[in-house]
User: Fold these one by one.
Assistant:
Number 1:
Amino acid sequence: MGLRYRVDHLITMKDEATVVDRGVVDIAAGRVVWSGPETEAPPNDGPEEKLSGLLIPGLVNTHSHNAMVLFRGAGEGLPVDRWLTELIWPREGFLTPEDVWWGMTLGAAELLANGVTTTHDMYFFPESGAEAGANAGLRTIVTPPLLTGENLTRFGTWEEQLDQMASLADTYRNHDLVTVGLGPHSAYAVPEEPLRAVAELARNKSLHIHLHVAEAEHEGDTIQERTGMTVPRYLEAIGILDSRTVAAHGVWLTSDDIALFSEHEVGVTHSPMSNGKHASGMAPVIELRSSGVPVGIATDGPSSHDRLDLFEEMRAAIRYARLRTGRADAMAATDALTMATREAGRVLGRDDLGHLGEGARADMVLIDTATLGPIVEPDDLITHLVYSGSPDLVESVWVEGRQVVNSGIPTLVDVEKARREVADRARRLAESI
């Protein structure tokens, strides 16, 4: 049987970002059946629930490494290349499946409490991450990483890693909360032969590809010297770029790279807080979106940006866009909210995420609006939500129609136990190198 929610204020993101006063959302079997103004709602003979506040679609985190709560705070002041090679990759060589399970459990609980209902995750021991995310009630798009290196031989040869990816995709083919893609780390960290094999596997199994592209200024220098091509042009040449490709960061893209992404319908993730912490640069978000390239807001990992907070990322995205262009009108609050919801779904190739239109997944967030004001016009709520919103205002969260946060507290996770487990495991990993 379906359930009708009546709410003071509603943002559906079905089309553009607008606020409906006295809204209705009907859900059944984990999907939205109808949403809109109360005055236009169809007859209803089923149960109803009245909500106080603002109901919005669940936020969509387009790029993260959630279990890296295990390394939160480590490597302060290092640029991203040294942070990875000197600190993160050596510690990751000592990871266990249980480490990842607990890291993902805590990360999932934080995301849900922060109003994020979907995360696009790339991390080791993906079975542990998938199960931990699902157990917490988080919608998890898992992209097992393909990465080779001196400290990472225990994860197998690249051929073995690809076989494991294919098997995992088959395992979760029809899962309600878990979807699987492919996660070759980057063109600078994965040789050409395995990248070509990833492209072939993606085509054969209709899987999407998630990789880091142009995050740091000089990460493509070796490829440029060897091939004469930028990283995006190189990825096109070896068959990686198409509409199922998600490029994380895209900070140092040329105008030709942007045109190439537009041509191949590549989606881009944008993590302004992580980029700022590592001094990686300011991504050309305005140029990407103007060229038709969808851009989704992302937190990156909770060790490269220590908070899993998309409200903070939305504000940073606006400010970086305005600073980069020198224009106060370069990006509006409605743009940032769109990139954290419906456009984020587009980046991931999921037209059922990031909105509350008919057929969408019933992933919803209830915001306490008591401190969001003053409200002169209904759409003032969007400005207040983006500029003044925070996880503290997240009252309730539903994923697939199931309530997973109540009164700001995740209902399926023992958060205090997860924190203790992560603290103990983080200490052991730090002492391992």
Note: The CA atoms of residues 67 and 103 lie 4 Å apart.
Number 2:
Amino acid sequence: MRFILPLLFLGYTLSGFSQSESLPLKNKNYPAIALNYHYGNVMPTTEFVKGDNLAGKPISHYQSLSLKMLWQNPGYRDWQKVYRCPYYGFGFFAGDFFSPEELGYPMSLYGILGIPIKRWKKVELYSEFQFGLAWNWHHYDSVNNPKNFAVGGGMTVHLDIGVSAFYHLSPTLDLGTGLSFTHFSNGGFERPNRGLNLYSPFLELKYHPSGRSDVRSVARAPRKRQGNQTFLMLGYGNHQLVEHELDSNYFAIGGLSGIYFFQLSNAFRLGTGADLNYWFGLNAAPDGTIGPRRAENFTLGFILQPEFSIGKLTLTGGYGIYAFHRNYGNFQQTYQRLGARYQFMDNVSLGVNVRAINLMLAEFLEFNLGYTFR
């Protein structure tokens, strides 16, 4: 039940993105269908992956097959011109870790954005970003799967960053290859949640049923006059301390964030600001029960936050440091933010972020309501 909200957010974002950027009838769509195969490595970031599991051997490799539905139109919209005619769409992933008893056969549905890096006559180089939800895991169970500290619940977030090169075999067919990094975790919604980190080469075959769009002749979008912005965000999530990860108690986190953004281009802005959060479980008792409500439950962090705009959709990153934290100390621990938000009415947005420390250990999922002062 905890993943109903992120699932609805993902569906709303994908549908809203396509509707808000719908094309006039006179413009031709240029769809593509792609089949992608990975065979790669599981990074040994947990004892479970290293071999402390029921099989008693490392989980070192995985394979996956993905089907993608993509579009790449020749600059009908301003955001397409800003990103030099990227491809975008959604995909379906089916994975195999060669350990079905402990990890199952996960599947995921995710959104895709491929931004061009360089184009030659018959070769194109892209960076690709994926964000979605995965399910069908064989997750941690104290009786039947007690060693799986990597996946604590039936659903996780799917994050992927990759670089790919495509060669034009014919006017309608491309052959691609590349390298990608993939992360699965549930943001601390259900623990234990040490996550899985993968890296892999891949092969991809892409078919353009309507041919390729003429992306090379699209003029660069003129610079818009955009002032700097102030963004205020109310956040909420559930959290459990790692030291109590086998306990069933989860505690609320509320927060207020303020970020001042400098608009550096039509698509990119860089902000700096602060995150003030109240963690109800930060001083939980040794048995995992809630502690007293005190000022020490507050944390204060300072963050540098880059963002990319794609129409009404914003992709968010962030790297911060806790200036005040009961457990980590002052200015001792960095934290990260990664997520997306969608502007569903003037200046008002809904979003979800993953908050993490040490780049890999998720703290909580940060559902947020934001308002932008322009």
Note: The mean pLDDT is 89.
